[in-house]
# Entry
Amino acid sequence: MAFTSTLKYHTWFPFHHHHHHPASHKPTSNSTLSFATTNHERLTTTTDPAIRLSPNFTPTQLLHSLRREEDSSAVIHLFYWASKQPNFKPSSSIYKEVLQKLGKAGEFDAMKDILKEMKISLSVIDNDSLLVFIESYASFGLYDEIIQFVDAMEVEFGVVANTHFYNFLLNVLVDGNKLKLVEISHSNMVSRGVRPDVSTFNILIKALCRAHQIRPAILLMEEMEDFGLLPDEKTFTTIMQGFIEEGNLDGAMRVKEQMVEAGCVVTNVTVNVLVNGFCKEGRIEEALRFIEEMSLREGFFPDKYTFNMLVNGLSKTGHVKHAVEVMDMMLREGFDPDIYTYNSLISGLCKLGEVDKAIEVLNQMIERDCSPNTVTVGTLIKLIDMVMEKAKFSENEVTMIRGFLKTSKYQDALATLGGILDSRKPNRAYR
# Structure
């Protein structure tokens, strides 16, 4: 089937459907984790921030004031000032806010001091407050320190990590591609008798798929029944994505059928994972047929992710005009293209020599507050080079436009480019 006819007869394209309206700090940490000492005196001698609270503040007012502070020294001083007031009522939310502010600054020693204060004031420390440490260490790439911290928190504070805690920990390690630490942490979870849930399995399956261990991932999914658990859509789509990353779309489709047989509801998440698989392999016609099939069978309606993937896929396979049509439909439905979609489309138009249309799409991108990234700027420079060659721009004109680009004045660059082109009508021989 010709591509044009395929596009024409795919009835899912939304002409009459309902509309959607989119609306450097250096970390400080000791090599070992010990909570035996406090730097309370050092912290309280920090330069005074402008205290915006009266001594009669409420817990909510204190929380809001802490959230407004950006400087970690100001946060810690405000906290200790507040803790000395007669109506101060310590709570997990207040301590957690202080921990988060310090974590963003990499002030891990100060965080441990706050944790000690929390233990004294509240008697108990909740798991959620400890998750701030994991997230903060990860943001600075200190993954080994995470494992040390988990061991220390149990020894020093007697905090028993629950399933949610381990799920968060495992997911952070997987996202950081620290698969050996995932193995260690899961082993600790098992040895401590913490029972896994569906999310635990999904995270471990994600880890296996990232390690290109698809078969072990499937076997792990099959083990879920031993724990009285059933795979959910996330379980199946994670394995589908694993197959797709291995270039095995057929394997992903088989998992989709297994998912349906298991009685798991197919949502846009599943459809989009598979559409992405088709597009990655350049099988755009099959992607369209699959979308049509799912629209008829499952009531699927394309969302912004579907549209973005199709525009990307069409652009990269040379069907740029069809990509423009799909993006027009996308905009009519109230969905905004992402920066990668704009990049693909603009690059495709440039390759075809469609200078005017490329400029139009660039203008649209900026007007819709989708700021160009380095890829777009690179494409824009290529576009200007093309215009210079075909429309015989002077060296001064090109230098001026590139000067706007270097200072991120994209609107000025495009306006100048358009003005030069308009001034040369009707002799626009670059078409």
About this structure: The chain has 23 helices and no strands. Residues 374-391 form the longest helix (18 residues).
